[in-house]
Design brief:
Blueprint: H1 3-26, H2 35-43, H3 48-70, H4 78-100, H5 113-141
Helix pairs in contact: 1-3, 1-5, 2-3, 4-5
Keywords: Membrane, Transmembrane, Transmembrane helix
Organism: Hyphomicrobium denitrificans 1NES1
InterPro entries: DUF6789
């Protein structure tokens, strides 16, 4: 486990996810599905900066560290391990965060596409997280273990 590499991988994956979210919003695709706005409203602070900072904290620190901790226990190649991990993060979002944000379980109050779109975004985040972590952790995995 390498926490620094987990945090770095989480940061890279969060940047990729954020770019996808911004593109989605600018194209007008599911404008009601705006996680940054949801986080901002839940915080009660009224500024998108709080939403963005919280989003980056969760994706970089929380998920990055947790992924570094459990990476080796997940099956498959690095990108698949990341996507598998992100499926768990998605499930937590669907059963905890979406109802707290007033969108109902699985965000279904926003329509049937909400859970599908968020799952795809989580898989993309996770695939990047796993691939980057796998590439950065590879050199230490190839080192011989000394007793």
């Amino acid at each position: 486990m390498n926490i620094a590499k987990g945090i770095g991988s989480g940061f890279v994956a969060t940047i990729v996810l954020s770019a996808i979210m911004l593109m989605k919003q600018s194209m007008g695709v599911m404008p009601q599905l705006n996680p940054i706005q949801m986080i901002t409203e839940m915080s009660g602070m009224g500024t998108l900066l709080v939403g963005w900072l919280t989003h980056f904290f969760i994706g970089t620190i929380l998920w990055g560290v947790l992924y570094a901790w459990i990476d080796r226990s997940l099956p498959g190649p690095p990108w698949f391990r990341g996507a598998t991990f992100a499926t768990g993060a998605w499930l937590l979002m669907m059963i905890l965060m979406m109802p707290m944000a007033g969108a109902g379980f699985f965000g279904l109050q926003m329509g049937m596409m909400a859970p599908v779109a968020t799952l795809v975004m989580h898989w993309l985040y996770g695939a990047v997280l796993g691939a980057v972590y796998g590439a950065w952790a590879r050199p230490e995995r190839e080192q011989p273990v000394h007793a």
